[in-house]
Amino acid sequence: MNSSFTARWNEALIDDNYELWRKDPQSVGADWTAFFEGFELGCANPPKNGAAPAAEPAAPPMSAGTGIANSSLETRVEALVYFFRTLGHFEAKLDPLAETGPNVPALSNEELGFSAEDLDKTVSSRFFRDGKSMKLRDMIAELRGIYCDTIGAEFMHIQNPMIRNWVLEKLENRSDWAKRDAPIQKDILRKLVKAEEFERFLHTKYQGNKRFSLEGGEGLMVALEAVLKNCPKHGIKEIVMGMAHRGRLNVLANFLHKPLTLIFNEFSENYVPKSVGGSGDVKYHLGYQSVRHPEDGYDVGIHLAANPSHLEAVDPVVQGKARARQRVLGDTAERKQVLPLLVHGDAAFIGQGVVAEVFNLSQLPGYSTGGTVHIVVNNQIGFTTLPKDSRSSHYCTDIAKMVEAPIFHVNGEDPLAVLQVAEFATEFRQTFGRDVVIDIYCYRRHGHNELDEPTFTQPTLYKSIGAHRLLSEIFADEIVALGEVTSAEVAQIKSDTLAELETALAEVKAKQKEESEKAPVAAEKKELAGSTAIFQAPYSHEPINTAISAATLEQIVNALTTVPDGFRVLPKLKRILIERRKKVWQDGGPYDWAFGEALAFGSLLLEGTPVRLSGQDSRRGTFSHRLSVMYDEQTRDRYIPLNHLGPDQAKFCVYNSPLSEYAVLGFDYGYSMDYPSMLCLWEAQFGDFVNGAQIIIDQFISSAESKWQRPSSIVMLLPHGYEGQGPEHSSARMERMLQLCAEENMQVCNITTPAQYFHALRRQIHNEYRKPLVIMTPKSLLRLEAAVSKAEDFTNSRFYEILDDPSKPDAKKVERVILCSGKVYYDLEAYRAANNIGDKVAIVRIEQLYPLHEEKLKRIVAPYKKAKSVIWCQEEPQNMGSWFFLAYRLADILSTTIKYAGRRPAASPAAGSTAMHKQQQAALVKDAFTL
Length: 931
Ligand SMILES: Cc1ncc(C[n+]2csc(CCOP(=O)(O)OP(=O)(O)O)c2C)c(N)n1
Ligand SMILES: [Mg+2]
What we know:
binds magnesium ion, 931 residues, binds thiamine diphosphate, 40% helix, eight-stranded mixed β-sheet
């Protein structure tokens, strides 16, 4: 890989911006301005002929000197300091495979305008070492030592001078804390040996198995241990971690201390995952949690989230989990007790957009976790793809600059430097509550996995890697030479590690032999030790009592319709929220959808269940219906009535999310897992946009219980309904949700009344089990007069998975049964009334599509024995909606042929023209009665 400074820049981009900047310095961003200022300072000597020097592709233009060579020595010295701070990292010796460090012309004496005589002059800078006088050559050496050694720090992009200077001071005064004594050196050596031997052991004992070895990137273990070791000092009690495949087994064994016997057992050929239900997952995806003791008597809980293959998908989930843990520990003010830690691969970090989405969450009121420590295992390759093909940015970490995170690039083969930056990063996070990045430059000893041949694509690189010595050997030589450790001690560390591995393997083999000789026995609880698996009661259709008392109803309504004295509510809102709601309560109805929702939230809060609702514009609601936050019309002070129900109530947290689906749903899902007693809801602006979060639905929500035994009761509110709003504002793609349904993994509902919605939400908490709940929520029904509920629907009712026809037709007269779900019910009802069809047709609503209550459906349809036709009516095109999911089930359950009334198959979810929509809608409703 060409890691030289000049080779990495995007020449065209720099040239273009440079031209713009030269014409008008205001025309480019602050970063570019800083760069070009520095750059011109550094190009004091214009190249001969005034042309750009011959350079590798993507070289910065080395032209147009600023005349700095002719400036005073004082100016050049200030430029020197500035240059090393801004550009020094480009010259740092980061790549363990490179024979020489990169050469940055801008940092050369020539470019800086220093002659040989200047080097012996005594100089000083107001901005360096408090103006201390020193020889110029010493100053250059000192700056080079700070900025161009094995740590390359980027921090000058931090706009806040206080934060920037904090980093600067730490870097420039680090010589003190760089010194390490023998126990620390030995400890590092032990960690390296353990990491290497673990991989080597698996390699020889389990040949042909994928394990995504860490080999070449063992520096990660040093960084993780350093973070852990610093936890007591900073009061960190828990680390919530996420990481992908690379080195995961090593981290499980050597950082989380998952017993080797469990890991080896998972490698055995006959291993069937007794410890997880469902279908389980491959071993390098499993979650784990443990408690470690960086100091006597100090516990640090480490939670490693289960992880799908989808790179970086776990990032938002870890953030949500961390925030939930912060709440559980009462750490919501400072967020310093729970540390989120994400380990990334270099290619994924820059490649996956969710990384940027998660950075964007980092400082938002509803989503902040007080800063994340990011560690990149930068093996300078992604599968077979090299950086030049996988990113347009110079570093894979450049995305982190969007939140002005300091970035510490470090040579992974300098374990002491790795340790330093890890300590530094932890302290930064604890001090400022902001994200920080450690970019560990390393290499990958084998192919992408151990069955993959790397020389097919990178023959020269892998030849040199093959010849590269083990890090433990390089480090051992260094510290033995320093006299800190003896060769005998090094040998002892190796033999102890090997003995530990051998003992564990012998134990596993003996146990397997013993088991193969015995009759099969029930799952052993021991295998669950430390796993993140949670077992729960099976799904049940048994009714749950979710009704509330009239007194509770009154208490909630009182709170919803009262504002503090002097709070000036907009007159229009006063009418909608206060006067109208009071009247509805006095009259016993009609309660609309938003009122029903407020009653669900309010009643849960009064029962001590906190509620978190997050989504785009969720405070008001996309359709202006929720209005959960009131604003004083003059001061814009906020008032949230649901937080003023009573003294013992739980908290209602409602957040307008950033404009992201993937990261925000991932976050709320993670939150729901680690705060299972909370009602946690994520709302899409329109259901149509939920596909931006499809990875979270596929990889986590629908499958986590089966793969990892990790339940969640996340509620997804997806506005859905065909109302002429076109292809992108009609469908939450329920067919996709339904296709994912099996093994009672989640509940999918298409609900038609406020009370049904109320009971479905309350059931989510009152159930014994935790299951995700997807609700197709209404749009026009929010205000449809027919789609309302009465007081007794809340106080004396429950959730009905299937609703029989409320007009109670005379069963003997029913000739046709129309089955439907969601909003189309009201269209069908209107048609029946308008055409005086009366008892001839019964309309049955399936409010919960999955798990389908088959018995109930049978019972409801059974009395309509005389019916000659059973119709499924839906407003979605035939290849969408629930038809394909239900068609064969309904035929089976009802032992009859089901006819289809709905839109024809379509490539796009809905028609763009309102007229066409109306025609189609009228036709499908008519079809339901006439086919
Ligand atoms: C979203 C996603 N796309 C593609 C893949 C397939 N894949 C697995 S690992 C990998 C390369 C990852 O490179 P990097 O992030 O640098 O991690 P490394 O394996 O080098 O540690 C790819 C493309 C995946 N797992 N997830
Ligand atoms: Mg990589």
